[in-house]
Design goal:
Strand order of the largest sheet of chain B: 1-2
Helix content of chain A: over 70%
Number of domains of chain A: 2
CATH superfamily of the largest domain in chain A: MetI-like
Helix content of chain B: over 70%
Shape of chain B: globular
CATH class of the largest domain in chain A: Mainly Alpha
CATH architecture of the largest domain in chain B: Orthogonal Bundle
CATH topology of the largest domain in chain B: MetI-like fold
Number of helices of chain A: 13
Structural class of chain B: mainly alpha
Order of helices and strands of chain B: HHHHHEEHHHHHHHHHHHHHH
Oligomer: heterodimer
Largest sheet of chain B: 2 strands, antiparallel
Number of domains of chain B: 3
Largest interface: A-B, 87 and 93 residues
Distance between the termini of chain B: 17 Å
Number of strands of chain A: 0
CATH architecture of the largest domain in chain A: Orthogonal Bundle
CATH topology of the largest domain in chain A: MetI-like fold
Shape of chain A: flat
Strand content of chain B: under 5%
Strand content of chain A: under 5%
Largest sheet of chain A: none
Radius of gyration of chain B: 31 Å
Number of strands of chain B: 2
Distance between the termini of chain A: 46 Å
Chain lengths: 284, 497
């Protein structure tokens, strides 16, 4: 009896190993394929075999040297500038807002939070047209400043996760500090923030990654100012039907290069990501 | 129905009962929302009435400096010793008056008609070209009109707090206390009134770049700002609810497009949410099963997909699945097919492809999120089920799924709403195509949001797009409201038991 149970367990574990291996392969294949294609020597977009016949670094080299139409290094710098500025501004603003809603009690607190929730329910794209005209009136379209402003402005509405975190920091700390004569300002900077390292890291990383992956806002604001594109819009332009024949392999190389830092950052912060999302879920 | 009756039902009846409850809850949820709204409006009206009464009474009972601060802001504060605060009030008033006279008045005065002077074109005798003499620009009138209204509201608030400050100072004087110096006021901003300091900048930004555009777009749904009415060349004007009646029945083509897209949007949201949820959980269970090694390796394989920016994976998928893409090549090499499969261009197959690709993208998220919760399910539940002879399938549907549903319902709702608004996957993979000529500027796989995008970017049909946007909001808000009410009632029950 014991033997047969063991046997059954081994068989079922074997099946599970097989399924998981097959699934992992399916999940990784597209990623492997793009890496492979980025090293491909043959220039056509579509080939009727899978494994490249010649291997080369050329696609990467051309990405940085052939900048006449598709200026990849410029896009990279654009995105880097935008994401660093956005990261600084929106991290501060998110932390301030979430601390306020978590710790400070004032008259219209609930009302403001509800307004924030309702604003989040409109399709985000809806406001973009108006934002575009607003920026146009301020003469800011087609500039990186516009992107920075809009990204940081919208960030304050995403305070839920860090508010959830601040809620878990014991209130007794605040009270003790108040008795010792600390103002709320000091409590925020000197007590709560140093204790909330994980959520600060999480907020910094998410707001840094956002500009690298956002497509639609950058597309609308930049129009056809190809020099001001960010990574996402630029790479999208490369596989546009007018350009794909010439730039497909560079697109693959470019995509691999963007994906590497973002992947590294994400793998680093996945723990915080899970905590943030499920923490909110368990509490409802 | 009492709990004891409910337990005795068979599974099918239980499901029907739950389903009935859900649909019964929809009208109740909506009704309770309107009751809530009614209460709010009533208290608002009462509040305004009370405020107005105070406004008049304060004027009658106030001393001379309070009375003058009704007209010249800040005099009340200056006369009673708070000089800097008073000067700030005064500067704000001057600023507002300048803003109104120099800039805003020319727009807000035309707000009711959205402009009357048409742009005219007269041929220039010198060059022979048409020369435009620009009239009113309806769009700018609408945009700056909204801006002016918001600024005015803020100014009213400042104005009232100027009076309040003066009245308060008067009361302090009567008791014989000294008013706060400016320095003390600033100190208060870092402590007792710290929320004002922290919230002011974020609120300003959100107000400028979310609330103002949103009000602008909502108002736009009540105008005829479409491809025929493009400022500055032509004017547009208010049309009331015409756009809404258009998409429901008045304009057959719009109505048909709206109807078929809303159907596909809802089907898509249900399919995308639940396939991801259930399949992802099954994979997570397999990874977390006792005795399976290399858990970390398997998990990392899946998580890699999330980590790569989504537009990269989607553009990549679109390439791989195209008619001469690598998937078709591989299938041909294996001898499974001779002609390319139209993954993205056949109306039905494109929908299937979207759901499958969405599974590929979404399952890793579910794995990441559910892994932790799955570990928390008490092991003895499974053990006793096994002893009673339950199969793996039964334990999944009887223990795992109910437990997970209980914990992750709020997240499921967020996912569902996210899928209704899932712009990226549709836009990058099929672009909404294949184009369907029966529909108005939309394809078979278009969701409401991608239609919204196409209407604005390709067609300049802003008013129609704004109307669609409002409808999407109504759907999302109703869903969250109903589910929110249901979970709230569930929580209350728990409190009593």
């Amino acid at each position: 009896m014991i033997k047969s149970y063991k046997l059954r367990r081994n068989i079922s574990n074997g099946i599970i190993y097989a399924i998981l291996t097959i699934l992992s392969i399916i999940w990784l294949l597209p990623l492997v394929w793009i890496v492979m294609t980025s090293f491909r020597g043959e220039q056509q977009v579509y080939i009727n075999y899978i494994i490249p016949k010649t291997w080369t670094f050329d696609n990467y080299v051309r990405l940085f040297t052939d900048t006449g139409i598709m200026n990849y290094p410029k896009w990279f710098m654009n995105t880097l500038i935008v994401s660093i500025c956005t990261c600084v501004i929106s991290t501060i603003s998110v932390l301030m807002v979430s601390y306020t809603f978590s710790r400070l009690r004032f008259k219209s607190r609930k009302a403001i939070m509800n307004v924030g929730m309702i604003l989040g329910m409109f399709p985000g794209f809806m406001t973009m047209i108006a934002v575009y005209y607003l920026l146009k009136a301020m003469n800011l379209t087609r500039s990186l400043v516009a992107l920075i402003i809009v990204y940081s402005a919208a960030a304050a509405l995403g305070y839920f996760i860090s508010k959830g975190f601040f809620d878990t920091v014991p209130r007794a700390l605040d009270e003790a500090a108040t008795i010792d004569g600390a103002t709320k300002n000091q409590i925020f900077w000197k007590i709560i923030l140093p204790m909330s390292k994980p959520i600060v890291v999480y907020t910094v990383l998410t707001s840094f990654i956002a500009p690298w992956t956002d497509f639609i806002l950058a597309r609308i604001i930049m129009g056809d100012a190809i020099d001001q594109y960010t990574m996402a819009v630029g790479l999208w332009k490369m596989v546009d039907k007018d350009f794909i024949d010439r730039f497909f392999l560079q697109f693959c190389a470019g995509a691999v290069l963007v994906a590497i830092p973002i992947t590294a950052l994400f793998l680093k912060m996945q723990k915080f990501y899970v905590e943030g999302v499920t923490g909110g879920a368990v509490k409802g | 129905m009492k709990y004891i009756d409910y337990v005795q039902l068979n599974p099918f009846q239980k499901m029907m009962y739950q389903l009935k409850n859900f649909f019964v809850a929809i009208p109740r949820g909506i009704a309770s929302f309107f009751v809530f709204l009614g209460h709010k409006i009533a208290s608002l009206v009462l509040g305004i009435g009370r405020g107005f009464k105070n406004y008049v009474l304060n004027f009658i009972h106030g001393d001379w400096s309070t009375k003058t601060s009704y007209l010249v802001m800040g005099t009340g504060c200056i006369a009673k010793g708070q000089i800097i605060k008073g000067i700030i009030f005064f500067i704000l008033e001057v600023g507002y008056i300048l803003f109104m006279t120099m800039f805003a008045w020319s727009y807000i005065s035309k707000f009711a008609s959205l402009g009357t002077i048409k742009t005219t074109f007269t041929p220039n005798p010198m060059t022979g070209l048409d020369e435009a003499k620009y009239g009113d620009n309806s769009m700018l009138i609408l945009l700056y009109g909204v801006l002016t209204i918001i600024v005015t509201c803020i100014f009213l608030f400042v104005y009232l707090s100027n009076i309040k400050a003066s009245v308060k100072l008067e009361a302090l004087k009567k008791v014989g206390k000294k008013p706060n110096t400016f320095k003390e006021d600033l100190k208060e901003l870092l402590d007792a009134r710290y929320h004002i300091t922290l919230l002011s900048v974020p609120t300003l930004l959100v107000g400028c770049f979310t609330i103002l555009p949103l009000v602008f777009m909502i108002l736009m749904a009540f105008t005829n700002f479409d491809s025929q009415h493009q400022p500055p060349a032509t004017l547009f004007t208010w049309v009331g609810f015409k756009n809404f009646t258009d998409i429901f029945y008045q304009n057959p083509k719009y109505a048909m497009t709206f109807g078929s897209l809303i159907q596909w949007t809802l089907i898509w949201a249900v399919l995308a949410t639940f396939t991801n949820y259930i399949l992802g959980m099954i994979v997570a269970l397999m990874i977390n099963k006792k005795g399976i090694k290399f858990k970390g390796v398997f998990r990392t394989c899946f998580v890699m997909v999330i980590a790569v920016p989504q537009f990269v994976t989607l553009l990549l998928m679109a390439q791989m699945l195209s008619d001469s893409g690598v998937v078709n090549v591989a299938l041909k090499e294996m001898g499974l097919i001779t002609e390319s499969v139209k993954f993205l261009t056949d109306p039905f197959l494109a929908k299937v492809t979207l759901v499958v690709v969405n599974i590929w993208i979404g399952i890793p998220y579910t794995i990441l999120i559910t892994s932790g919760i799955l570990m928390n399910i008490p092991e003895d539940l499974y053990e006793s089920a096994r002893i009673d002879g339950a199969s793996a399938l039964v334990t999944f549907f009887k223990i795992t799924l109910p437990y997970m549903l209980f914990v992750t319902t709020p997240q499921l709702i967020t996912n569902f709403i996210g899928n209704i608004n899932n712009f990226n996957i549709i836009f990058f993979l099929t672009g909404g195509g294949p184009l369907n000529n029966d529909l108005y500027n939309a394809g078979d796989t278009d969701l409401l949001v991608t239609w919204l995008y196409k209407l604005t970017v390709d067609k300049n049909d802003y008013s129609l797009a704004a109307t669609i946007g409002i409808m999407v909001f109504v759907i999302c808000a109703t869903l969250s409201l109903v589910t929110f009410n249901m979970t709230k009632s569930a929580k209350n029950e728990e409190e009593f038991s």
